[in-house]
């Protein structure tokens, strides 16, 4: 064999061996393993080989919605002073946002695409996530405010907190924490404490604390027991006039991210956290998935959270059937900005574009630059997720959120169509992720490799351009031209007003917001 040809063959063999080694390391997974570093233990790796996490005769996650139980506990009306504290806390709508049941098949299908490294769902067309803006619109929880990271308490410490903040006797409270085997109260015990203090003893502050702790423990802070609440959260309600100063949207999102992180691992069999939040998010962004029933409420009128738009409807599709359905999704199946009609209730807040880490029950990355299309901007290749800094640095970054917003918006621009990406985004994404969950049918040489992104072939130089109008195509009408111009002006105005963090109530920007409303069609 000629030396030159032999060298070429050796190089090809080495290259094939290297590719095979990488492929054997993560079959069905990312080719470039630098991003999804926990893929070895991820449920998607096992699903690729037909391995299911089984509990009894079920392969879907165990998910419990506490909506029906909570609805049974909500009184016709609270005492006026308690209702006042509840209203200013920012938590009052949690009494009415919970679905009575959730669909574990649909939710499990999305959990299999969640990755802790990026805090996002890895879909066939890129990443998506639940943002702070989504939480604000769905639940009407306050976004701005301080973070709170609780410290776990013992049985005795929980009993002491119950004496100080709930007005209970120490021995009585200690019996409860001993029964719960730790620093916990059962939801039923908190409900009974609320009733005693509100209706018998007139200890309205203690009753309000018991009710709010039970409320968050039944919704945004639900754990896998589905019956108890961690006493470490009680200190959030020590000063009832300051409850609203916390970023409750961040607290809710950290808890949900943390539970999704846990549930995405193959060894986990249940999903804790607020399943209603996840399912309503799916309904808003993916109108073709699941069975959706809508309530009679017009939730875009000021006052109603968008989660109240949805009602439970029993689904028939099973988890194995959802996997190929999600594999086949395209960007056109997504409503990329579902809450634009809800801005009368929840105006867009620039702080929801903060990029860094959120802290609550733990610390999680919050990286909207990875899902920037959900904010109306062109998706670009994001930088690697940053390492978690110290708590004090997280707080400083949160307070100075403008710096991170400027950093993630600088490489992009408003989209010209909803799912727009930079040209090389999808080829990069197919290297670092697993765009599909279902393994193709094996061929004679085993399973095929992970699919590579294949862009449409470029047309020949003399080929007609597909997007060019035909010679006999009708001319653009004046109305079509006006709509196109309005769309361009709307994108430019939204970008400018977002960058300067303009307030609609500021008289200096009154004309600009009027022009934006005209572009949106508010004035036909």
Question: Can you lay out the helices and strands and say which pair or pack?
Answer:
Blueprint (H helix, E strand, L loop, with lengths): L2 H23 L17 H6 L18 H7 L6 H10 L14 H8 L2 E2 L4 E4 L2 E3 L3 H8 L15 H12 L3 H10 L4 E3 H15 L2 H14 L10 E3 L17 H16 L11 H11 L7 E2 L15 E2 L7 H9 L28 E4 L3 E4 L24 H9 L1 H9 L15 H8 L45 H22 L10 H10 L5
Antiparallel strand pairs: 1-2, 2-3, 4-5, 6-7, 8-9
Helix pairs in contact: 4-10, 5-13, 6-11, 7-8, 9-10, 14-15, 17-18
How would you describe this structure to a colleague?
The protein has 524 residues and is mainly α. It has 18 helices and 9 strands. A hairpin with a 3-residue loop joins β8 and β9 (363-366). It is globular. The protein starts with a helix and ends in a 5-residue tail after the last helix.
Question: Which range best describes the helical content: under 10%, 10-25%, 25-40%, 40-55%, 55-70% or over 70%?
Answer: 25-40%
Beta strand count: 9
The global form is: globular
User: Strand portion, in percent?
Assistant: 5-15%
Q: Taking all residues together, what is the mean pLDDT?
A: 86
Distance between the termini: 78 Å
Largest sheet: 3 strands, antiparallel
- Helix/strand-derived category reads mainly alpha
Counted by DSSP, the helix tally is 18
* Radius of gyration based on Cα positions: 26 Å
Which regions contain 5 or more consecutive residues with pLDDT less than 50? 17-25, 442-450, 463-473
Order of strands, main sheet, comes to 1-2-3
Order of helices and strands: HHHHHEEEHHHEHHEHHEEHEEHHHHH
């Amino acid at each position: 064999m000629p030396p030159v040809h032999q060298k070429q063959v050796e190089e090809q063999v080495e290259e094939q061996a290297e590719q095979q080694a990488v492929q054997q390391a993560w079959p069905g997974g990312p080719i470039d393993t630098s991003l999804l570093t926990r893929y070895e233990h991820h449920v998607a790796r096992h699903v690729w080989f037909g391995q299911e996490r089984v509990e009894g005769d079920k392969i879907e996650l165990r998910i419990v919605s506490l909506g029906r139980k909570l609805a049974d506990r909500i009184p016709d009306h609270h005492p006026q002073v308690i209702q006042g504290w509840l209203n200013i806390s920012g938590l009052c709508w949690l009494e009415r946002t919970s679905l009575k049941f959730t669909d574990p098949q649909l939710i499990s299908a999305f959990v299999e695409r969640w990755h802790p490294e990026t805090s996002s769902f890895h879909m066939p067309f890129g990443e998506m996530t639940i943002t702070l803006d989504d939480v604000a619109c769905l639940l009407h929880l306050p976004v701005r405010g301080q973070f709170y990271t609780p410290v776990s308490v013992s049985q005795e410490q929980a009993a002491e907190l119950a004496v100080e903040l709930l007005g209970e006797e120490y021995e009585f409270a200690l019996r409860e924490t001993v029964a719960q085997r730790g620093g916990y109260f059962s939801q039923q015990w908190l409900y009974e404490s609320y009733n005693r203090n509100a209706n018998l003893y007139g200890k309205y502050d203690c009753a309000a604390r018991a009710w709010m702790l039970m409320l968050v423990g039944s919704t945004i802070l639900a754990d896998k027991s589905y019956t108890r609440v961690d006493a470490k959260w009680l200190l959030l309600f020590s000063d009832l006039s300051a409850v609203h100063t916390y970023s409750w949207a961040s607290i809710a999102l950290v808890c949900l991210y943390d539970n999704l992180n846990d549930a995405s691992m193959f060894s986990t069999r249940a999903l804790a956290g607020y399943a209603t939040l996840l399912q309503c998010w799916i309904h808003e962004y993916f109108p073709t998935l699941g069975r959706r029933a809508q309530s009679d409420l017009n939730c875009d009128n000021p006052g109603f959270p968008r989660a109240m738009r949805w009602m439970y409807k029993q689904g028939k599709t099973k988890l194995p059937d959802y996997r190929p359905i999600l594999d086949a999704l395209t960007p056109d199946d997504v409503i990329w900005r579902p809450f634009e009609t809800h801005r009368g209730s929840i105006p867009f807040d620039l702080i929801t574009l903060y990029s860094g880490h959120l802290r609550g029950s733990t610390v999680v990355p919050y990286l909207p630059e990875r899902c920037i299309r959900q904010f109306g901007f062109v998706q670009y290749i994001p930088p690697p997720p940053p390492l978690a800094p110290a708590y004090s640095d997280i707080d400083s970054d949160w307070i100075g959120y403008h710096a991170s917003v400027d950093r993630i918006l600088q490489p992009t621009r408003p989209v010209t169509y909803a799912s727009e990406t930079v040209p090389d985004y999808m080829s990069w994404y197919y290297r670092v992720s697993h765009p599909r969950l279902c393994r193709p049918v094996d061929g004679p040489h085993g399973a095929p490799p992970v699919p590579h992104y294949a862009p449409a072939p470029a047309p020949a130089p003399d080929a007609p351009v597909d997007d060019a109008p035909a010679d006999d195509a009708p001319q653009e009408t004046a109305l079509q031209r006006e709509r196109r111009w309005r769309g361009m002006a709307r994108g430019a105005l939204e970008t400018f007003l977002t960058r300067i963090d303009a307030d609609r109530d500021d008289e200096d920007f009154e004309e600009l917001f009027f022009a934006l409303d005209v572009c949106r069609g508010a004035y036909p």
